[in-house]
Automatic annotation (TrEMBL):
Name the record gives this protein: DRTGG domain-containing protein
Subunit-level organization: Homohexamer.
Domain of life per record: Bacteria
Pfam family, one: DRTGG
InterPro entries reported in the protein's UniProt record: DRTGG (IPR010766), Ser_kin/Pase_Hpr-like_N_sf (IPR028979)
Domain DRTGG: 5-101
Species name: Desulfonema magnum
Database matches in Gene3D superfamilies: HprK N-terminal domain-like (3.40.1390.20)
Amino acid sequence: MKLFEIVDILDASVLTGKDQMDREFFTAGASDLMSDILAKLADDCVFLTGLTTVQAIRTAAVSGVGAVVFVRNKIPPPEVIEMARDEDISLLSTAYSMFVSCGRLHAHGMTGLDGTR
């Protein structure tokens, strides 16, 4: 699924990564516990979270996450956005809850981090 499709499915705002709309993603993970993301294979996945801290971006960078979606209309502070730009990680924000966001992505063919549906 391309990033522009994720933006459309989640009615998301693009905070960084407007130049990466054709980047493809095949898996997604969602958590507010960074250890959950670190414990799973996350290369080039989409990471959904409600945490708008630098730790979320650090975790994404270490795990190889390609895009972070902040749920529940969360907007990170400027230093978080800048860090994501520096790490070449796309940031999106959606009004949907984490549960609904995951469901919408799954309904359009996105799989979980382990690749199962």
